[in-house]
Specification:
It holds the Pfam family 2OG-FeII_Oxy_2. This is DNA-N1-methyladenine dioxygenase. It contains 3 helices and 16 strands. It is of the alpha+beta class. The chain has one domain: Alpha-ketoglutarate-dependent dioxygenase AlkB-like (Jelly Rolls, Sandwich). The chain has an 8-stranded antiparallel beta sheet.
Length: 207
């Protein structure tokens, strides 16, 4: 893991190919704490069901799909219509776009998947964000607020060992072009107390 100086936040290059990097200190501790509280208390968190092997299951976390009106999204057999942007989420989106612009990776996001993990038992299984609506080799930017947890990565072709990326409070993980094609990721259960909220920004292309 090599540190690179690209302006605020402080960046760490995790992989060169595909590009995977972690930015620390997106907002500063005070504002990050305020945003975590706002999102936890002001958003209408949902617990939808997904279809797995022909059966309906409640997801093991709470979530919200948010974005522009035409940013509809489908995965695991379910369609999601976006909730309108909340002001705090718009603030986070603009901060992410500014941070990426400063690194020479300009991006314009029209949607975000917010996940609320109440504790270490809440989780997300192995997947890659490669739905058709995201286009070819999308850039995905994920903000973490709250309890630090590791995101587990594994290579699709098993060329190397799986690895963890620890995501601290007030951090920004950038999964660049090719990451979703070459790697899968999961938030596996751990015996960790404390709540975590992640915001995974993306651009959806209407069908």
């Amino acid at each position: 893991m090599n540190d690179v100086t690209l302006g605020p936040p402080h960046w760490q290059a995790l992989l060169d190919s595909p590009p995977l990097s972690l930015g620390l200190g997106l907002f500063g501790l005070t504002r990050a704490n305020e945003l975590l509280l706002q999102l936890d208390q002001q958003l209408h968190w949902q617990r939808p069901t997904l279809t797995l092997y022909g059966r309906q299951h409640f997801i093991p976390r709470r979530q919200i799909w948010m974005g522009d009106p035409d940013a509809a999204y489908r995965y695991s057999g379910e369609a999601f219509t976006p909730t309108p942007w909340h002001p705090a989420v718009e603030e986070i989106r603009l901060a992410v776009e500014r941070a990426l612009e400063a690194t020479g990776q300009p991006a314009s996001f029209n949607s975000v998947l917010l996940n609320r993990y109440a504790d270490g038992e809440d989780r997300m299984g192995w997947h890659c964000d490669d739905e058709t609506e995201l286009g070819k080799d999308p850039l995905i930017a994920a903000v973490s607020l709250g309890t630090e947890r590791p995101l587990r990565f594994r290579w699709q072709d098993r060329r190397a060992a799986a690895f963890n990326v620890w995501l601290p409070h007030d951090s920004l993980l950038v999964m660049g072009a090719g990451t979703q094609r070459q790697l899968q990721h999961a938030l596996l259960p751990r015996k960790l107390p404390g709540m975590r909220i992640s915001l995974t920004f993306r651009r959806v292309y209407p069908r």
